[in-house]
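User: I'm putting together a small comparison set for a docking exercise, and I want a reference complex before I start. The sequence is below, and the ligand is heme C. Could you produce the 3D structure with the ligand included, as structure tokens?
Assistant: Of course. I'll restate your input first, then give the structure tokens for the complex.
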Amino acid sequence: MRAFARRIWLPLATIANLGISPAPAADAGHGADLARRWCASCHLVTSSQAQASADVPSFASVARKPDFNPEKLAFFLLDPHPKMPNFPLSRTEAADLAAYIGSLRQ
Ligand code: HEC
């Protein structure tokens, strides 16, 4: 019975969390993993990265823009930019990436 209840409640809690919470707590550490995996071929995603494409803004420079806003960035990332391969990012992944980029802001 307890195991059954857990099986029902876990997915329900997850759905409720996705649906109701306006800004799910984003995980910048996970965003950093995603950035290294998916974005580092073009963007400088960490200060220790040696090389990326010329003409592609580094994530640190994105973060330093005066109008930087993690919500807007997450929204932008849901709709892949031109020249960027079509990443099927989930809302959570987009928010995590935005949180990571935001963490580079100083
Ligand atoms: C194939 C190369 C490529 C990959 C991979 C790539 N990007 Fe980009 N990205 C670009 C280019 C080129 C631009 C400049 C946009 C333009 O000029 O159209 C850009 C622009 C951006 C911008 C806007 C910068 C600004 O000045 O406003 C953000 C944010 C961004 N990328 C995030 C990401 C994230 C997050 C990932 C990984 C999920 C990613 N990109 C993967 C090539 C890439």
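The domain at 27-103 is CATH 1.10.760.10 (Cytochrome Bc1 Complex; Chain D, domain 2). The pocket of heme C is lined by residues 38-39, 41-43, 56-57, 62, 73, 77, 81-85, 87, 97 (CB under 6 Å).
User: Thanks, that's exactly what I needed.
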